[in-house]
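Subject: complex prediction, re-run

Hi both,

The earlier run crashed halfway through, so I resubmitted it with identical inputs.
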Amino acid sequence: MNDLTRIPVREQEPEIRAGNFEEVCLGYEEEEAVKEAYRCLNCKKPLCISGCPVAIDIPAFIMEIQQRNFPKAYQVISRHSALPAVCGRVCPQETQCEGKCVRGIKGEPVAIGKLERFAADYALEHGISPEKPEKTNGHKVAVIGSGPAGITCAGDLARLGYEVTVFEALHKFGGVLVYGIPEFRLPKEKVVEKEIQKVQELGVKFEKNVIIGRSVTIDQLLEEDGFEAVFIGSGAGLPRLMGIPGENANGVFSANEYLTRSNLMRAFDSSYDTPIAAGKRVAVVGGGNVAMDAARTALRLGAKVHIIYRRGEEELPARAEEVHHAREEGIQFHLLRNPKEILVDEKGYVCGIRVIKMELGEPDESGRRRPEEVAGSEYVIDADTVIMALGTSPNPLISSTTKDLNVNKYGCIIAKEENGQTSRENVFAGGDAVTGAATVILAMGAGKNAAIGIHEYLTKQEEKNEYTD
Ligand code: FAD
Ligand code: SF4
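This time it finished cleanly. Structure:
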């Protein structure tokens, strides 16, 4: 081991973890974290910070780890992020902070994500709290959705003194962190629930089972319930399908439904009676994090699993670590392949999936090379279950029940990137509801910008009222 390589992190062995839902990555012990922290050069112009959408002071918290001031390391992070134990586990650091780290020019970048996780886990285990707001300013703000965008916006507004209520449609808080990302990557009780408790400690109120647009509308919150501004962080939970023959057969699922059954309703846990079609031969269509999670869940439920993705290795949108772990666990990758038809038996059940080989042509509007079919190259993969992980769009419930709220042709709410302002003056939005399916840290960045936007808006309103009184 030298300065060019990072301290390896402990993980469950692939053959053991493929049969359980325990966390795969075990994180750093204290000595390992301190050693890795010493690889940081404490750069004068830390490029890592520019790669972080919530601008965590990365060298500052790493220096605290070097000095073994672990509670302080957490407090430095918590000024910028309400969910560091989550981000340390699921952020695509390789394309963000670590992608910019100067250590990466000659060797491996500093393991910023694993150090963030270490400091955050230390705080969760030792009951260390984030710095608290001084006093409330009496202004009420409503936040819709308790995913990373909503939680971040709520936490930042509470720090600024606002009285914030988060309204969540489901019976658990956390959005995709609880219903999408599996337990083996992101433990719910140990990590997600505890980080949300810390936001509650800042004074944020959380109300579950409230569907905005059905239980109450945004117009009512603003006009009748005394809220002066609203942030919409309702995500993008509506699954897309391909429109190929056989998609309505028994045994075809959207990844959302499949993962929700397993995560939120704990179908993987034998003490719960939630049914799930485990399947023996499962084909997952897609190459993002959602596809990897669905595939690795199916594997743990006992299936032989194939991933079918229409582009190549370099274009796989999933985090590098997830692809690596999926391969180690024995999942078969069929790259440059596209489904043409789901084969259905006489009883209406899936019995295979017919795919065609693809090759990459000229770049398309996304900048990636467009996959094109290779004529006459079709073949069948044997499968009894097909899981579609092709992306999601926002549910139209909120946009269709709110006055003057504009959406684009994909149903995403139109909001300014710098402050989340929508077409309606006192309504702000951010996260997947605006961008379509993206990442935890981008949703958090949007929640943060919107908190500043709301604060500026309400401060101006107050000044106007003082002037006219
Ligand atoms: P969400 O997390 O979707 O939260 C929205 C919340 O709003 C939900 O709780 C929903 O119930 C609630 N809501 C919706 N409508 C209403 C309503 N009308 N009234 C009240 N509440 C409402 N990103 C990464 O960075 N790394 C990963 O490894 C990763 N893996 C992923 C794996 C899966 C399986 C999935 C599905 C996504 C993954 N992502 C990952 C993406 C990431 O989780 C999302 O981009 C992020 O959660 C978006 O945050 P959000 O707050 O905008 O929305
Ligand atoms: Fe440390 Fe890398 Fe950031 Fe420099 S760029 S301060 S080495 S983490």
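Residues 440-468 form the longest helix (29 residues).

- K.
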